[in-house]
Specification:
- With 468 residues, this protein is mostly helical.
- The chain folds into 4 domains: 6-61, no CATH class; 89-157, Recoverin, domain 1 (Orthogonal Bundle); 179-257, Orthogonal Bundle (Recoverin, domain 1), CATH 1.10.238; 261-451, Recoverin, domain 1 (Orthogonal Bundle).
- The protein is built from 25 helices and 8 strands.
- The chain has helices spanning 6-19, 43-61, 68-72, 89-100, 113-119, 127-133, 136-139, 144-157, 161-169, 183-192, 204-221, 231-236, 239-248, 261-274, 284-288, 297-303, 312-316, 322-333, 338-348, 358-374, 382-393, 403-409, 412-420, 422-429, 443-462, and strands at residues 107-108, 142-143, 176-177, 229-230, 281-282, 320-321, 355-356, 401-402.
- The strands form 4 sheets. A two-stranded antiparallel ribbon has the order 1-2. Strands 3-4 form a two-stranded antiparallel ribbon. It has a two-stranded antiparallel sheet with strand order 5-6.
- The radius of gyration is 35 Å and the shape is globular.
- The B regulatory subunit might modulate substrate selectivity and catalytic activity, and might also direct the localization of the catalytic enzyme to a particular subcellular compartment.
- Residues 336-371 form the EF-hand domain.
C-alpha cells in the first residue's frame, strides 16, 4: 500500500509523531509492521523513515530559545528614579567638601546646614533631614567624612527627589515613611521659618502645629490609607514642591495645602471648643456639639466605630484624638476631594462590602427625615430621595453605589450631605449645584479663610478697650 500511495504513508507517519493523542511527542512504540495497510516487505523502510522523522521533530523541539528579544527590552521600572547619565558625583562631593572646609574641624551644625543643602543641590528645608541622616542628632554636629559617605550612598542608589527625601527621613531598612518620621523635619520648619517666628515663645503650640501638618500630609499624600507613605505616593503628590516653596515664600499662610498656620489655628480652635477638659480627646457627645449638631447621630456613631480611625486603643475607649479630628474637619468641610469621598464612603458602608446598598442609604436618611419634620419641613419620601440620588450618581450596577461611582459623578458632596448633614443639605436645596464646579479655591480653603476671620474678629471684640 505504501508503494502505491507514498503520501498516505507520510501522513500516517506525521500523525504518529505530532498528533497522536496517546503518544504525543514521546517515543512511539508502535511498529509499522503491525499496521494492516503496510506490506511486510516495506515495514523496515517505514520504521526507519518514521525514526528519522521523530529525530527531526525532537531536534526541532529542543532548539534553545534565543534570548535576543528579552535582552532588547530596555528597563522601564525605576522604583528609585531613573539614573542620570550626566551626573558627576565627584564634582558634587567636591562642592560639599568646600562648604565644610569653611567651618572649624570641618564640622557643621544644624544652624549652618542650609549651606550644605544648597551645595547638595537640594531645597533649603532639606537641611534637617540631611543633618539627621548623617548622624547629626546624636552629636549636635556632622563631620565632612560622615556626611560625604552618607550623601554619596544616596546619590548612587536614589535618582530622584522623592527617593532621596524618603531615604533621608525613613528609618533604617524601611522603604516608606510613617508619621513620626516627619517630626524632626517639621520641628526645623517651626524653628527656622520666618513665617513662624512668633511661635518661638509659644512652645506648647509646636507639637499641635506639627501634628496638624503631619495629618494633612498623610491626608493628601497617603492615598493607600496604609499609614505608610511610599516613594510612588510621594512622587505623585505636590508635597515636595511645597517643601521647596518654604524657601521662597516668607508668608507661610500662602502654603495652604500643608503648612498654613491659619489653617492650623482654625482646626485647633474648633477642636478646643469641643474638648472641654482639654485632654486632646473628645467623645461622641463632644462631637455632636460641632456646628450645632449638624452631623447626624448615626453618622457620629460611625465616626467612632473605627471605620476611619487608626488608633485601636482610642477607638475602644470611645474617643477621638486631635489627629483624627483633623481628618474629620477637613473631610466635613470639603467633600469634593478624593480622600474626603473615601472617608465618608467608609462611614456609610456599614457592612464593609464596598458598595452602598439601599438599606444603608435608608438607615442614614431616616434620621434626616426626623430632623426635617422637627424643623416643620416636610421631607421627601425615601423612595423619591433615592430616585434623585440614583439619577445624580448613575451607578454602574443598578441599585448599588460604589466608590468609583461617587468619584465619577462630581456631586458627591451633595450626595453625602443629603444623608447626614441637615444644614448643608438645606443649603444645597437653595442653590444650583453646578455653580461651584470649576472654582479656583477649594471648599476647605474658603471655609478656613472665613473661620479665621471670624476668630480674629471675636478675639478683637473681646480685647479690653483702651481709652487714651
Amino acid at each position: 500500500m505504501f508503494s502505491q500511495n507514498p503520501q498516505q504513508f507520510l501522513n500516517i507517519a506525521l500523525h504518529r509523531v505530532f498528533i497522536h493523542p496517546t503518544l504525543g511527542h514521546k517515543t512511539c512504540s508502535v511498529k509499522f509492521s503491525e499496521q494492516p495497510y503496510i506490506s511486510p516487505t516495506m515495514s523496515p523502510v517505514a520504521n526507519g523513515y518514521y525514526f528519522c522523522l521523530f529525530q527531526q521533530a525532537q531536534a526541532k523541539k529542543e532548539e534553545p530559545v534565543t534570548p535576543a528579544l528579552s535582552e532588547s527590552i530596555p528597563k522601564f521600572y525605576f522604583p528609585r528614579g531613573q539614573p542620570q547619565a550626566n551626573i558627576n558625583i565627584d564634582n558634587l562631593i567636591s562642592k560639599i567638601e568646600k562648604i565644610f572646609s569653611q567651618f572649624p574641624d570641618e564640622r557643621v551644625t544644624l544652624k549652618d546646614m542650609g549651606l550644605v543643602a544648597k551645595a547638595c543641590e537640594c531645597p533649603l528645608y532639606w537641611k534637617a533631614p540631611l543633618f539627621h541622616a548623617a548622624g547629626g542628632d546624636r552629636r549636635g554636629h556632622v563631620s565632612v567624612h560622615k556626611f560625604v559617605a552618607m550623601w554619596r550612598k544616596v546619590l548612587q542608589t536614589c535618582h530622584d527627589d522623592a527617593s532621596k527625601f524618603l531615604h533621608l527621613l525613613a528609618k533604617p531598612g524601611c522603604n516608606y515613611l510613617e508619621q513620626e518620621d516627619f517630626i524632626p523635619f517639621l520641628q526645623d520648619v517651626v524653628d527656622s521659618h520666618t513665617g513662624l517666628a512668633f511661635l518661638k515663645e509659644a512652645s506648647d503650640f509646636h507639637s499641635r502645629y506639627i501634628t496638624t501638618v503631619v495629618q494633612r500630609i498623610f491626608y493628601n499624600v497617603n492615598r493607600s490609607w496604609t499609614g505608610k507613605i511610599t516613594c510612588s505616593e510621594l512622587s505623585k503628590s505636590s508635597f515636595l514642591q511645597n517643601v521647596a516653596l518654604l524657601e521662597e515664600e516668607e508668608e507661610i499662610n500662602q502654603l495652604t495645602e500643608f503648612f498654613s498656620y491659619e489653617h492650623f489655628y482654625v482646626i485647633y480652635c474648633k477642636f478646643w471648643e469641643l474638648d472641654t477638659d482639654h485632654d486632646l480627646y473628645i467623645d461622641q457627645r463632644d462631637l455632636m456639639r460641632h456646628n450645632d449638631q449638624a452631623i447626624s447621630h448615626r453618622m457620629t456613631e460611625r465616626l467612632f466605630s473605627g471605620a476611619v480611625t487608626r488608633d485601636r486603643k482610642v477607638h475602644k475607649e470611645g474617643r477621638l484624638s486631635y489627629a483624627d479630628f483633623v481628618w474629620f474637619l477637613i473631610s466635613e468641610e470639603d467633600k469634593k476631594t478624593e480622600t474626603s469621598i473615601e472617608y465618608w464612603f467608609r462611614c456609610m458602608d456599614l457592612d464593609g462590602d464596598g458598595v452602598l446598598s439601599m438599606y444603608e442609604l435608608e438607615y442614614f436618611y431616616q434620621e434626616q427625615s426626623q430632623k426635617l419634620e422637627a424643623m416643620a419641613i416636610e421631607p421627601l419620601p425615601f423612595e423619591d430621595c433615592l430616585c434623585q440620588m440614583l439619577d445624580m450618581v448613575k451607578p454602574e450596577i443598578p441599585g448599588k453605589i460604589s466608590l468609583r461611582d461617587l468619584k465619577r459623578c462630581k456631586l458627591a458632596h451633595i450626595f453625602f450631605d443629603t444623608f447626614f448633614n441637615i444644614e448643608k443639605y438645606l443649603d444645597h436645596e437653595q442653590k444650583d449645584p453646578l455653580l461651584t464646579v470649576g472654582q479656583e479655591i477649594s471648599d476647605w480653603e474658603r471655609y478656613a479663610a472665613e473661620e479665621y476671620d471670624n476668630l480674629v474678629a471675636e478675639e478683637t471684640a473681646n480685647e479690653p478697650y483702651n481709652d487714651w
